[in-house]
Amino acid sequence: MQLRYAFRLDPTPGQRSALARAFGCARVVYNDAIAARERAAGEAFPTAAVLSRTLVTEAKKTRERHWLGEVSAVVLQQSLRDAESAWRNFFSSLKGARNGARVGAPHFKSRKDERQSVRFTANARWKITGTGRLLLPKVGEVKVRWSRALPSIPSSVTVIKDAAGRYFASFVIDTDPEQDRTRFREPDPDSAVGIDLGLTHFAVLSDGTKIDSPRFLRRAEKKLKKAQRELSRKQKGSKNRAKARLKVARAHAQVTDARREFHHQLSTRLIRENQAVAVEDLAVCGLARTRLAKSVHDAGWSRFVGMLEYKAKRYGRTFVKVGRFEPTSQVCSTCGHRDGPKHLDVREWTCTACGTLHDRDHNAAINVKHAAGLAVTACGAPVRPEHVPAQRDETGSHGSPPDARAA
Fold first, then answer.
1. N or C: which end of the chain has fewer CB within 10 A?
2. pLDDT, tens digit, for every residue of 71-114?
3. Which residues are catalytic?
């Protein structure tokens, strides 16, 4: 399994200039490749070998592009591969051969983009020195803030500069499956948990545990508004505006980092303590177009579910996604009776069939676990609640609000 390990870099002023040249040259080669494809509309697209010869090798000999020789050739070749991959994904998406959301045509990169990156593969002869520094061709030995040891030798490294002006080295690592599965103590074979994601509580587990939503963006709104207000008052193109923009970017980076750390800690704990994890497949894109959009984005459900999925695969756990149309908030987890849709302000309800009082989120988490087939009887056999025929007044659409699946 391939994973990325990211570490903070502390380049010197000279190394920052060298990295800026690498970012700029990679961007120019990428844009040239995109333009070459657009000029070839209706004709045969030039092959990768032709683009490499014309846009890199021969371009270095011209007066307009002689500065391409100041950076590593591997960086330029990787930029060409990125452009080729972007076009391939676009045409695959048009044909319906690519899974996921539809991908648009590649567009030109701007030198004003705050996020820049270059990639060094093994043939670039980069290495980690004995003193723990990252040696990059035509850049030098860059200081790295190592927070942990790499489990194996990286196959490539990507140097990234984000909008906040920070530099990172992202290593691609091939992990050992056997070593990964022994990293955590094996949990109880029957341990399984269903997770109901929401906004009032970030997650409610089927065992009744409620995890409060940190609401990192909401808590930082006052600071963000002040920084954004100061930015809006600065004259465009001035140095003070650049400083104010950097201040806004750093404030947003703090929110993003705190949210990511929370997701990592919670997902690791759930995977470590349970043999199987089930979660509902929420329509986040649809919920992000409702009045709850800011809160939905602040929660970051998609990233959290993605972390659960890849960590379950890495550590040998079972991960199940329950369909978004499963009526987890409408079915009694005790008797299986379907009580119909409920508005978001209904946090507790009593089953009309068995009289059980349910907490809405806890009941939904139990139903997620049932729907995934993770609930077991005393003999260890998986069970599901029995299907109850819909009553005459329950059939059809009830016209529930579009954000009714948020909780």
1. N
2. 999 999 999 999 999 999 999 999 988 888 888 999 999 998 88
3. 196, 280, 361
pLDDT tens digits, 210-228: 999 999 999 999 999 999 9
The alpha carbons of the chain give a radius of gyration, in whole angstroms, of 26
* DSSP codes, 319-377: EEEEPTTS-TTTB-TTT--B-----TT--EEE-TTT--EEEHHHHHHHHHHHHTT--B-
DSSP-based three-state secondary structure for 360: helix
Distances from the Cα of 302 to the Cαs of 108, 282, 290, 294, 307, in angstroms?
28, 8, 17, 14, 9
pLDDT, tens digit, 9 for 90 and up, residues 326-374 = 888 889 988 888 888 888 888 888 988 888 899 999 999 999 999 888 7
Alpha carbon distance, N-terminus to C-terminus of the chain = 34
HEC sequence for 109-123: CCCCCCCEEEEEEHH
258 contacts: CB under 8 Å, gap ≥ 6: 214, 216
CB atoms < 10 A from the CB of 313, how many? 15
d(CA 211, CA 201): 6
Answer yes or no: are the C-beta atoms of 264 and 148 closer than 8 Å.
no
Q: How many helices and strands in the chain, by DSSP H and E?
A: 11, 14
Query: Which residues fall within 8 angstroms of residue 316, CB to CB, at 6 or more apart?
Result: 177, 180, 181
Q: CA 306, CA 275: separation in Å to the nearest integer? A: 17
Fill in the DSSP letter of residue 315: T
Rounded Cα gap, residues 84 and 137, in angstroms: 24
> Cβ(364)–Cβ(328) under 8 Å?
yes
At 172, the amino acid letter reads V
Q: Give me the pLDDT at residue 375, please.
A: 62
CB 307 within 8 A of CB 317: no
Residue with token string 């003999």 = 379
* Cross-strand pairs, 210: 204
CA distance 196 to 204: 5
**Would you give the DSSP letter of residue 43?**
S
Q: Which residue has the tokens 């371009």?
A: 59
Q: How far apart, in whole angstroms, are the C-alpha atoms of residue 53 and residue 60?
A: 10
Q: How many other β-carbons are positioned within 10 Å of the β-carbon of residue 269?
A: 11
User: d(Cα 275, Cα 370) in Å, to the nearest integer?
Assistant: 15
Dist CA 118 CA 171 (whole Å): 12
Alpha-carbon distances of 211 from 24, 206, 256, 280, 371, rounded to whole Å: 45, 12, 19, 16, 22
This prediction has a pTM of 0.85
